[in-house]
Amino acid sequence: MSEEFYRIKRLPPYVIAEVNAMRAAARARGDDIIDLGMGNPDLPPPPHVIAKLAEVAAKPDAHGYSASKGIPGLRKAQAAYYGRRFGVDLDPENEVVVTLGSKEGLANLAQAITAPGDVVLAPNPSYPIHTFGFIIAGATIRSVPTTPDEAYFDALERAVRFTVPRPSVLVMGYPSNPTAETVDLAFYERVVAFAKKHNIWVLSDLAYSEIYFDGCPTPSILQVPGAKDVAIEFTSMSKTYSMAGWRIGFAVGNRTLIGALTRVKSYLDYGAFTPIQAAAVAALNGPQDIVAANRALYHRRRDVLVESFGRAGWEIPAPRASMFCWAPLPPALAHLGSLEFSKQLLTHAGVAVAPGVGYGEDGEGFVRIAMVENEQRLRQAARNVRKYLQSMGVNTPAKVAG
């Protein structure tokens, strides 16, 4: 009996798990760890959403199997959101499916449309499911950059010319996790034109659509005329409404891809718990104060983090969107590499971050910092970082504001 399983053999060790294990052990010892590693929102959902969950859960008939593709009211609510936010018309019946978070949707779509040996273009660095969802399905990954400049489109053209078999899928996600890079509608227009020219499906991950800063709303690829001919887009309620543990997301767009995902899901799950779906309807159709409030809160946290860490001696670029900073290692410590640096920061500063190499080899030299602690804790983290940098012989400013 073989213990060498085909798909498991294709998965490398999960680098970020090393830091997660160290963090858990430190907390078990009673250490105070400021966790900026996992993008786990620390805020509650709106009260009216929780109330709707409780109301529906109290009904005796609400506890049976739900609808795998999502209850009709939720699909209609998501279509209405796209209409309000992006001016995009969606058919709730054939162009919207509810997923158990965007991660599950991406993974199941990969299973639905991928044959062993297919070539998929995916960003590097990237959120792991963007690559490993397809690796598990048997695909071969050809990496493309995340930075949306001419080098990005040059990489796409080279991939089409020199890859055998020709790529069949392009995966992208903006605002990017982990790099926080953003794009404009002109970028998506070029992507759609490229995809149509070369008969390539486009999978867009828009999980951070509502966490943008400096008055620059993030666009949807579906705003491009004709994008639904080639593209599907994933969104999530995890960050927008602080509902990460509820596991509610959506896939919208191309009918063929939506149909494939819906069919696979029908074999694998019965959909999210009906009261959760009803509460998600209340979130999408109800007051949207939390969306603006969360955006403003992450904006303040971004400013505090960038300013206080800069005073500590670690210059971090300010992201234009998302709940993450993509931070280059302090130059004097770049030789450590992102994994060792993350381990040392946890051990000696009590601050957990995610090593960039965990998001792909091109993430080496960076760490991802999640803005999931309050402003006081972010300043405390900066003070701890300053002491660590000093212990490593790094010149730091005279004082960190507290």
From TrEMBL:
<dbReference type="InterPro" id="IPR015424">
    <property type="entry name" value="PyrdxlP-dep_Trfase"/>
</dbReference>
<comment type="similarity">
    <text>Belongs to the class-I pyridoxal-phosphate-dependent aminotransferase family.</text>
</comment>
<feature type="domain" description="Aminotransferase class I/classII large">
    <location>
        <begin position="32"/>
        <end position="383"/>
    </location>
</feature>
<dbReference type="Pfam" id="PF00155">
    <property type="entry name" value="Aminotran_1_2"/>
</dbReference>
<dbReference type="InterPro" id="IPR015422">
    <property type="entry name" value="PyrdxlP-dep_Trfase_small"/>
</dbReference>
<dbReference type="GO" id="GO:0030170">
    <property type="term" value="F:pyridoxal phosphate binding"/>
</dbReference>
<dbReference type="InterPro" id="IPR015421">
    <property type="entry name" value="PyrdxlP-dep_Trfase_major"/>
</dbReference>
<protein>
    <recommendedName>
        <fullName>Aminotransferase</fullName>
        <ecNumber>2.6.1.-</ecNumber>
    </recommendedName>
</protein>
<keyword id="KW-0032">Aminotransferase</keyword>
<dbReference type="InterPro" id="IPR004838">
    <property type="entry name" value="NHTrfase_class1_PyrdxlP-BS"/>
</dbReference>
<keyword id="KW-0808">Transferase</keyword>
<dbReference type="InterPro" id="IPR050881">
    <property type="entry name" value="LL-DAP_aminotransferase"/>
</dbReference>
<dbReference type="InterPro" id="IPR004839">
    <property type="entry name" value="Aminotransferase_I/II_large"/>
</dbReference>
<dbReference type="GO" id="GO:0008483">
    <property type="term" value="F:transaminase activity"/>
</dbReference>
